[in-house]
Amino acid sequence: HSITNFITVHRESVFACAADLSDSRPLRVALTTSISFDAVWDQLSCLLEGHELHVVSTEVLSDIGLLATWLDAHDVDFLELTPTHMAAAVSEGLFDNGRRTPALLVVGGEAVPDSLWEWLGSLGEGTRSFSFYGPTECTVYQVFAEPRSTPRPILGGPTFNMRVFVLDDGLEPVAPGVTGELYVTGAGLARGYLNRPALTAERFVACPFGAPGERMYRTGDV
């Protein structure tokens, strides 16, 4: 159920907009993430939609010059990197000298610095960019933002069938601008931790804003 919801979100929110920029031909997606990292589903799911998956070697991924040559050779449409890696790539000229920028650039896994957010937001109409956020317990990502929509970094809004709340210690919503903890609920929520009932009870708590029995995940992020 959770992975089905994720794949639907990715199809409608990400691959669809990239397809619009590539004349609806199959997208060329770069596999840049370790198979042990949940974000790999951002890229692997392209195969379910009939797109192409191009595997980037560790050697190429760690050298911006080699990566630039590889992107040109494979004419990649979808590139996802951590903000740290993307910022380094931009500063070292990955998209300079008239090189084609992929139709879709995605960052996730850590906070996005102001300078990178500004650069992503300044890209022309031929490229869309997204910032993804989400703990593994809620199936890859549940919140996303498009840098061109706001001048400073934000988490953004929830994906389809997901809800997020910023709450105080009493599980009451905080006022705008007040620090609180982020909670996530919805179709992507996991059942809990396998064979770890105490930790499950601590992190997956009753949702006071949903139907009886609905739970939400306490992310620990403020």
Automatic annotation (TrEMBL):
Residues 15-194 form the AMP-dependent synthetase/ligase domain. InterPro entries: AMP-dep_synth/lig_dom, ANL_N_sf. GO terms for biological process: amino acid activation for nonribosomal peptide biosynthetic process; secondary metabolite biosynthetic process. Pfam families: AMP-binding (PF00501). One of its GO terms (molecular function) is phosphopantetheine binding. GO terms for cellular component: cytosol. Gene3D superfamilies: N-terminal domain of ligase-like. This is NRPS. It comes from Streptomyces sp. BA3-1. The lineage of its organism: Bacteria, Bacillati, Actinomycetota, Actinomycetes, Kitasatosporales.
